[in-house]
Design a protein that fits this description.
The protein is of the alpha+beta class. It contains nine helices and four strands. A four-stranded mixed sheet has the order 2-1-3-4, sandwiched between helices. A hairpin with a 3-residue loop joins β3 and β4. It is globular.
Length: 219
Protein backbone atom coordinates (compact mmCIF):
# COMPACT_ATOMS: atom_id res chain seq x y z
CA UNK A 1 0.00 0.00 0.00
CA UNK A 2 1.39 3.40 -0.98
CA UNK A 3 1.95 5.83 1.86
CA UNK A 4 -0.25 8.88 2.03
CA UNK A 5 1.03 12.27 0.89
CA UNK A 6 1.55 14.43 3.97
CA UNK A 7 0.35 18.03 3.71
CA UNK A 8 0.78 20.53 6.55
CA UNK A 9 -1.22 23.74 6.27
CA UNK A 10 -0.25 26.80 8.30
CA UNK A 11 -3.29 29.05 8.43
CA UNK A 12 -5.31 31.40 10.59
CA UNK A 13 -9.07 31.59 10.89
CA UNK A 14 -9.29 35.32 10.18
CA UNK A 15 -7.16 35.04 7.04
CA UNK A 16 -9.37 35.27 3.93
CA UNK A 17 -6.77 33.70 1.66
CA UNK A 18 -6.41 30.70 4.00
CA UNK A 19 -10.05 29.72 3.43
CA UNK A 20 -9.60 30.13 -0.32
CA UNK A 21 -6.34 28.19 -0.37
CA UNK A 22 -7.81 25.34 1.66
CA UNK A 23 -10.80 25.20 -0.68
CA UNK A 24 -8.58 25.12 -3.78
CA UNK A 25 -6.50 22.30 -2.28
CA UNK A 26 -9.53 20.21 -1.39
CA UNK A 27 -11.06 20.82 -4.82
CA UNK A 28 -7.81 19.59 -6.41
CA UNK A 29 -7.79 16.49 -4.21
CA UNK A 30 -11.43 15.79 -5.06
CA UNK A 31 -10.85 16.26 -8.79
CA UNK A 32 -7.93 13.80 -8.69
CA UNK A 33 -9.97 11.39 -6.56
CA UNK A 34 -7.13 11.31 -4.02
CA UNK A 35 -9.18 11.75 -0.85
CA UNK A 36 -7.79 8.52 0.61
CA UNK A 37 -4.24 9.25 -0.54
CA UNK A 38 -3.48 12.39 1.47
CA UNK A 39 -2.98 13.18 5.15
CA UNK A 40 -3.71 16.81 5.96
CA UNK A 41 -2.69 18.52 9.19
CA UNK A 42 -3.74 22.06 10.05
CA UNK A 43 -1.05 23.98 11.90
CA UNK A 44 -1.56 26.95 14.16
CA UNK A 45 -0.54 30.38 12.91
CA UNK A 46 -1.86 33.56 14.48
CA UNK A 47 -1.67 36.71 12.39
CA UNK A 48 -2.12 38.74 15.56
CA UNK A 49 -1.37 36.95 18.83
CA UNK A 50 -2.22 40.14 20.71
CA UNK A 51 -5.66 40.64 19.19
CA UNK A 52 -8.19 41.59 21.86
CA UNK A 53 -10.56 38.89 23.08
CA UNK A 54 -13.29 41.41 23.95
CA UNK A 55 -13.34 43.28 20.64
CA UNK A 56 -16.61 43.46 18.69
CA UNK A 57 -15.40 45.60 15.81
CA UNK A 58 -16.19 44.35 12.32
CA UNK A 59 -13.37 43.28 10.04
CA UNK A 60 -14.54 45.86 7.52
CA UNK A 61 -14.35 48.76 9.99
CA UNK A 62 -10.99 47.58 11.31
CA UNK A 63 -9.42 47.39 7.85
CA UNK A 64 -10.78 50.78 6.79
CA UNK A 65 -9.66 52.46 10.03
CA UNK A 66 -6.14 51.03 9.92
CA UNK A 67 -5.44 51.34 6.23
CA UNK A 68 -3.05 54.05 5.06
CA UNK A 69 -4.58 53.95 1.59
CA UNK A 70 -7.46 56.16 0.39
CA UNK A 71 -10.76 54.70 1.57
CA UNK A 72 -11.99 54.09 -2.00
CA UNK A 73 -8.97 51.86 -2.72
CA UNK A 74 -9.36 49.98 0.56
CA UNK A 75 -13.04 49.32 -0.10
CA UNK A 76 -12.25 48.19 -3.64
CA UNK A 77 -9.65 45.73 -2.29
CA UNK A 78 -12.19 44.27 0.14
CA UNK A 79 -14.70 43.85 -2.69
CA UNK A 80 -12.02 42.17 -4.81
CA UNK A 81 -11.37 39.62 -2.06
CA UNK A 82 -15.10 38.93 -1.79
CA UNK A 83 -15.25 38.40 -5.56
CA UNK A 84 -12.26 36.04 -5.50
CA UNK A 85 -14.02 34.01 -2.84
CA UNK A 86 -17.26 33.95 -4.81
CA UNK A 87 -15.41 32.64 -7.86
CA UNK A 88 -14.67 29.39 -5.99
CA UNK A 89 -18.05 29.09 -4.30
CA UNK A 90 -17.34 30.88 -1.00
CA UNK A 91 -19.48 33.63 0.49
CA UNK A 92 -17.53 36.34 2.35
CA UNK A 93 -19.39 39.02 4.32
CA UNK A 94 -16.91 41.59 5.58
CA UNK A 95 -19.67 43.76 6.98
CA UNK A 96 -20.47 41.14 9.66
CA UNK A 97 -17.06 39.49 10.19
CA UNK A 98 -15.65 40.35 13.61
CA UNK A 99 -12.02 40.88 14.53
CA UNK A 100 -10.87 38.19 16.94
CA UNK A 101 -8.06 36.49 18.78
CA UNK A 102 -7.97 33.03 17.20
CA UNK A 103 -6.04 31.11 19.86
CA UNK A 104 -9.15 29.46 21.31
CA UNK A 105 -10.24 28.26 17.87
CA UNK A 106 -6.77 26.85 17.26
CA UNK A 107 -6.83 24.98 20.59
CA UNK A 108 -10.15 23.43 19.65
CA UNK A 109 -8.69 22.46 16.28
CA UNK A 110 -6.06 20.41 18.12
CA UNK A 111 -8.83 18.81 20.16
CA UNK A 112 -10.86 18.05 17.02
CA UNK A 113 -7.77 16.55 15.40
CA UNK A 114 -7.24 13.90 18.07
CA UNK A 115 -10.93 13.04 17.80
CA UNK A 116 -10.71 12.55 14.03
CA UNK A 117 -12.81 15.61 13.24
CA UNK A 118 -10.16 18.14 12.24
CA UNK A 119 -11.37 18.78 8.68
CA UNK A 120 -15.01 19.06 9.76
CA UNK A 121 -14.18 21.53 12.52
CA UNK A 122 -11.90 23.68 10.35
CA UNK A 123 -14.57 23.80 7.64
CA UNK A 124 -17.21 24.72 10.20
CA UNK A 125 -15.21 27.54 11.80
CA UNK A 126 -14.21 29.09 8.49
CA UNK A 127 -17.72 29.02 7.11
CA UNK A 128 -19.26 30.36 10.30
CA UNK A 129 -16.68 33.15 10.49
CA UNK A 130 -16.50 34.36 6.90
CA UNK A 131 -20.12 33.78 5.94
CA UNK A 132 -22.16 33.95 9.13
CA UNK A 133 -20.09 36.43 11.13
CA UNK A 134 -19.41 34.10 14.08
CA UNK A 135 -17.56 35.64 17.02
CA UNK A 136 -14.38 33.59 17.54
CA UNK A 137 -13.82 35.37 20.86
CA UNK A 138 -17.00 33.73 22.20
CA UNK A 139 -16.59 30.45 24.08
CA UNK A 140 -20.29 29.81 23.65
CA UNK A 141 -20.20 30.13 19.86
CA UNK A 142 -17.03 28.04 19.57
CA UNK A 143 -18.57 25.26 21.66
CA UNK A 144 -21.67 25.36 19.45
CA UNK A 145 -19.42 24.69 16.45
CA UNK A 146 -17.83 21.79 18.30
CA UNK A 147 -21.27 20.34 18.94
CA UNK A 148 -22.28 20.75 15.28
CA UNK A 149 -19.43 18.49 14.16
CA UNK A 150 -20.37 15.85 16.71
CA UNK A 151 -17.81 16.44 19.44
CA UNK A 152 -18.26 16.55 23.21
CA UNK A 153 -19.27 19.93 24.61
CA UNK A 154 -17.86 19.33 28.10
CA UNK A 155 -14.49 18.25 26.76
CA UNK A 156 -14.38 21.34 24.55
CA UNK A 157 -15.21 23.60 27.48
CA UNK A 158 -12.36 22.03 29.45
CA UNK A 159 -9.97 22.71 26.56
CA UNK A 160 -10.98 26.38 26.60
CA UNK A 161 -10.64 26.75 30.36
CA UNK A 162 -7.28 24.99 30.77
CA UNK A 163 -3.83 24.96 29.21
CA UNK A 164 -4.58 21.84 27.16
CA UNK A 165 -2.91 21.90 23.74
CA UNK A 166 -0.76 24.91 24.64
CA UNK A 167 2.37 22.82 24.01
CA UNK A 168 1.10 21.74 20.58
CA UNK A 169 0.42 25.34 19.62
CA UNK A 170 3.88 26.36 20.83
CA UNK A 171 5.43 23.60 18.72
CA UNK A 172 3.55 24.80 15.63
CA UNK A 173 4.93 28.27 16.25
CA UNK A 174 8.46 26.90 16.56
CA UNK A 175 8.10 24.77 13.42
CA UNK A 176 6.74 27.75 11.49
CA UNK A 177 9.87 29.67 12.46
CA UNK A 178 12.07 26.78 11.31
CA UNK A 179 10.27 26.62 7.96
CA UNK A 180 10.49 30.44 7.71
CA UNK A 181 6.73 30.81 7.44
CA UNK A 182 6.14 34.55 7.45
CA UNK A 183 2.64 34.68 6.00
CA UNK A 184 -0.32 32.38 5.53
CA UNK A 185 -1.59 30.24 4.04
CA UNK A 186 1.57 28.18 3.72
CA UNK A 187 1.44 24.59 2.48
CA UNK A 188 4.21 22.07 3.13
CA UNK A 189 4.17 18.80 1.18
CA UNK A 190 6.06 15.79 2.53
CA UNK A 191 7.99 17.96 5.01
CA UNK A 192 10.09 19.44 2.21
CA UNK A 193 8.12 21.23 -0.52
CA UNK A 194 6.76 24.62 0.47
CA UNK A 195 4.00 26.53 -1.32
CA UNK A 196 3.22 30.00 0.07
CA UNK A 197 -0.01 31.82 -0.69
CA UNK A 198 -3.50 30.63 -1.54
CA UNK A 199 -2.47 29.06 -4.88
CA UNK A 200 -5.07 28.03 -7.43
CA UNK A 201 -6.52 24.57 -7.95
CA UNK A 202 -4.36 23.86 -11.00
CA UNK A 203 -1.13 24.44 -9.05
CA UNK A 204 -2.24 21.95 -6.41
CA UNK A 205 -3.26 19.41 -9.04
CA UNK A 206 0.17 19.60 -10.65
CA UNK A 207 1.97 19.35 -7.30
CA UNK A 208 -0.06 16.36 -6.14
CA UNK A 209 0.43 14.51 -9.41
CA UNK A 210 4.19 15.07 -9.34
CA UNK A 211 4.53 13.98 -5.71
CA UNK A 212 2.38 10.92 -6.31
CA UNK A 213 4.52 9.91 -9.27
CA UNK A 214 7.75 10.55 -7.35
CA UNK A 215 6.58 8.44 -4.43
CA UNK A 216 5.54 5.66 -6.78
CA UNK A 217 8.92 5.59 -8.51
CA UNK A 218 10.82 5.67 -5.23
CA UNK A 219 8.63 3.28 -3.28
Amino acid sequence: MNKKIKIDIYSDYVCPFCYMGKTNLYNAIRELKMEDQVEINFKTYQLDENAKIDNHKTKYDSIVENSEKPIEITIAEIKEIEEQAKDIGLDYNYDIMLTANTKKAHKLTKYASIKGKQKEFVDMVMQMYFTNGANLNSDEQLVEMVEKVGLDIREAEEVLKTDKFEDEIAKDKYDAFQYQVKSVPFFIFEDRYGAPGKQNKEVFIEALQKIKEFNKENH
